[in-house]
Structure formats: structure tokens, C-alpha cells
Amino acid sequence: MSENMQPELPTAEVELGVEAPVEEAKTICIQLLPSWRALCKDDLDVTTISGGITNVMVKVTPESGKCLDPVVVRIFGRDTEKIIDREEELRKLLQLNQHGFGAKVLAVFSNGRIEEFLKGRIVALSELQLPEVQSKIAVRMAEFHSLLSVFGTEECSFWNTIASWIKQAEQLKLDDPEKQASLEQINFEQYQADINSVKATLLSLNSPVVLSHNDLLHANIMMLEDGSLQLIDFEYGGTNYRGFDLGNHFNEFAGLDCDYTRYPPRSIQENYARAYLLGSGAAESPTDDQVRRLVVEANVSSLASHLFWGLWALIQARYSSIDFDYVEYAKMRYAEFKRRREEFLGMAVGI
Asked: What's any GO biological process attached to this entry (predicted)?
């Protein structure tokens, strides 16, 4: 199939609820999946898939005697179209499927889609400390980065996204008075100045623009049954500097509780960088200087990651129905940005 051709998918103009969508998930699977149409709801079991704070996902499993594989029904979080272009996401995801990335899309409905259920498990947060897992992640990241042609542009789209988000964040009004008070304490002029400072430093590094996942936390990396890794959930993906996925991934060692004492030490950063450069198709082993440069790109990009996800969290605080303290999360991300700002920006001096 040509990369410009998209497979025809079963489609329904139906919107599923995000609260306890068990019966709706069964109905949409029977309606849209041709091999499931002879089934009834009693033939299906639904379980919640936890871990995400953007969407609601459930696994739908037919009875064992039906000889059908389980699927995942992904229901987009409320108003997430304000920060994610869902049509563009689907277009990109279908092309990534052709290149062996992500769960295969089986059908779409108004506020979500049905995907294949990947046989494997999410990489545990603790496994990020294992050298063999680190190397696999870095190589898979490099393979993903090589698919820039999927987006058809070498322009870095990251700054357009962050510019759009800060405009939205400045205009937010939250229903919770305490959270609104926290929001009003944010100095968005300083926040924009911080964005400008990090952007200028990244531009000075002349880092290559790649196809970036932009959200490589451990929950978006699956260990398949054959031992290979699969990246999932590309909704925040776009063109970005190669260091962003590394720096963002380093931030995600902290987990959602933002324990930044877990940020990887220099030795682990260098292991990632070396494996990444080898995975990028280098004919020879990368030099120490190449490794050092990529580590600098990653650490400066980790600052951009904090600013990015801080704004995202503020917008989510206004619109998301998921039970998560987004405002507190935004505050923790910005606090860590300020703590590491001078250290990481200083790394770029003389590069």
C-alpha cells in the first residue's frame, strides 16, 4: 500500500461516554468489527486499562470459544480536541502502522477508535533502570525518529504547539476556587520568557529535526511477547529536535508523582545516547564528543519538556473528567524546570 493511501476503516458517527463505558464498548465492537457481528453482548468481557491521563481505554475480550482476538476501545478524553488534532493524529497513526509502529487501527467512531490488543505488557517504571531495557528503548526511538517522511516536513512543529497552548492557558478559568487561585499565581510573561530562552538554546545546538513521539513515558512503551519493544500512543507526536524524546524520557523516570531524584545520572544518559546513535545507523561507534553533544541536547530538551507538559496539564485541569490533580502536576513540572534551568542551559555553552 502506498504511504499516501489510507485503508478504509469501519466508521460510525457515534459518541461513547467516558464514564463506565462497558455496554457502549461492547455495542461499538459488534457494530464496527465485521467478524464480531454474530456476537451478542453476553459473549464479551470488558476490563479497564489503567495508566493514561488523557484517554479512557478498555479491553474487550470475546469468549474463548469464539476464536477472536481481544481489542482495545480508546475513548478520547473530554475536550482533548482542544490540544490534539484528532484527524491529523489518525492520518499519522495509519501511516505509522504501515511502518510497524503502534497498535493497528481497526475502526473509528466520533470520539475514539478500536485498536488491536498488543500481546505483551507495559514496561514498568522500575525497568527503566535496566541497561538492556534502556538500549532497546534508545534503538526503537532512533528507528521511530527516522520516519520523518511520514510528516512530510523538516520544520519543527513543537514551538507552534507550545505557542497555541500558552495562549489557551492564559485564558483559562477553573471551577475549583483553590485551583483557580493557583492558576492566577502563574506569571505567564515569565513562562513565555522561559520558553524563548530554551528555544534559543536549542536552536544554537543545531539539533536535527526528527519525527518525535514527544510522550515516551514508560506506559507508552510495550514489551511484546517476543521480547521486542513497541511504542504506542502517538497523539502528541510531531516534528521536533532529536533530543526531545530523550530529555522527556529522562524526566519520565520520575513517574507521575514527579520524584525527580530518579532523573538518570550521567552514566545512564550516555548509555542511552550511545545506543541511540548506534540505532540511527552510524557506520562506526559514536565518538565521545557525539555522545556528549546528544546528552547536552537531551538535558536542554528536558527543560522544554517541563514547559510543554506544564501547559498541557493546565489545559487538562479545565477540561478533563479524569480524576487527576493536573494543576498540582503543572506546578511540580515548573518547579523542576526552575531547579534545573541554569544547570542544563549552562551545558550548551561552548558546544
From this structure: phosphatidylethanolamine biosynthetic process
